[in-house]
Amino acid sequence: MQVKALRLCIHLPLIEVERLLLVTLKNLTKLTRLNLNKNEVSNIEPLKKLTKLTHLVLRRNKITNIEPLKNLKKLTGLYLWHNEITDYSPVEPYYDNLRYKDFELH
């Protein structure tokens, strides 16, 4: 699928994502759901512009910093299990609005 066609997507099912593809994802601003489960992702900075996301799956990666998620206030589902995250405060402002989550604020 070409990048131009991907920009029109609003939903991507589980995909195998190479680290370089994350740079492309930042341009997919219409996405509402994204599943990056088990992709060895460590840098989620490119996701910070995906403000229309309602569901985000980042399980089983190598994420330590979730600061880029702080403005994704439309999220109702956020899955962060099995990462190396120690500070969940960036999502605290909308934590109570998350209907689906697999973590607790520390």
Automatic annotation (TrEMBL):
Alphabetical list of PROSITE patterns matching this protein: LRR (PS51450)
InterPro entries cross-referenced by the UniProt entry: Leu-rich_rpt, Leu-rich_rpt_4, LRR_dom_sf, SDS22/Internalin_LRR
Q: Which source organism?
A: Oceanirhabdus seepicola
Which keywords are on file for this protein? Leucine-rich repeat, Repeat
Name of the protein: Leucine-rich repeat domain-containing protein
Q: What domain of life does the UniProt record list for this protein's source?
A: Bacteria
